[in-house]
Design brief:
Chain lengths: 108, 351
Amino acid sequence: MPMIRKSIVILALGTCITATEAAAEDVIITQQDKAFSEEEVTIKAGDSVTFMNNDSTTHNVYSRSKGNQFDSGAQGPNESMTQVFSSPGKVKVRCAIHPRMKLTVNVE
Amino acid sequence: MNGFSLNIGVSLSLLIGVGFFANLGISPVKADDAPGQVNEVIILKAAYKRPTAVPFPEDNPFTEAKAKLGQMLYFDPRLSRSNMQSCASCHNPSFAWGDGLPKGVGDHMNELGRRSPTILNAAWSEALMWDGRFETLEEQALGPIQAGVEMNMPLDELLEKLNNIDGYRPLFAAAFDGDEEITAEKIAMAIATYERTVISGEAPFDRWIKGQRKAISASAQRGFQLFNGKARCSSCHVGWRFSDDSFHDIGLADDDVGRGAELSGIVKMQHAFKTPGLRNIDQRAPYMHDGSLATLADVVEHYDHGGIKRPSLSDEMHPLGLTEQEKKDLVTFMKSLTSDDDPVTYVQLPR
């Protein structure tokens, strides 16, 4: 039964790859004209968001929402940072330099 | 109660969408204007339209009873340990809701570290205080009350004090669905609600934006163009309030790190302070977070110079090379932002 065994292995690998991709999805949010590209996104716990600064000015990304606190520090033009959101809940993301920049990340 | 009526009157007219925007139009195109230049001015003017509604948060909506209670608390010096300082001591309607001093004055008449900012149009503000450390007016309202150097009033003592003033309980009951219990949260909600009604009225500039071509002088109109062009003011002083609600180091010579105290890892936040709005600005001298500049002409001179060169200096700061006439035009323009509001009357406080 060598062929069957090989198929099982391939199927198992495929399942692993699919499972891995589902657990590590990444949403890209751009920062341009002192605004996030979206006001609200929904992701699953363990997913990440990549913030890409397409502005000519320095930005920052932070959250004080319980379970998902983070602070990017300075994020210069053309720099990006990726943040994993591990706890379910509504996460308020802000730029400490430009408080009008607001993003809500709904973590399911 | 005139002050209350004035402010609520303004805010309600905004809430129901009448008044300011009813006839908002764009200046008619002059035959001798170049089309490109006219379009540029039309676009610029559109960016300075007044809003049609006051933003009250969902968890603290406007009610007249809550605003009335907030007004009482705002003007009541018994909210301080000394019984001598109210919110209005530093944010005084007689001084365009500031105090007219280079630095604020706190408990025991001690000088504070920064100038008292106006509360005008705070309803739209995204971050409160010069360093933006409070996200909401509700958070901010309790800050100075408790601060030892300011009103120096611990909340537990304040609650006891207000509970012993019979006249307050009916006001709290009216403001909070019949519940007369006095809590810190309710105090904050009421003061914040009142503060959101403090809105600068229509200024000559607004009438010009609405289409009255002679509402401001030719000098002020040139100043508007400079403000949005060569002088680069609108890089930060943007929108109808003339603030981006962001933080910038504009190169003033003092040791205060401002927003940098909270964000020590971000170089550009060192010496960075919140962009103040410019409404009624000619009534709000002296200027800057440290009160170091006495006149609007001094402010223009500072920006023309470009500020102290240091790593944190805003990328927007450069020497401007303004002529003397251009400096005068900028000052004239800023003076056109002052509204002719009715005077505010002090309230009769509960006993």
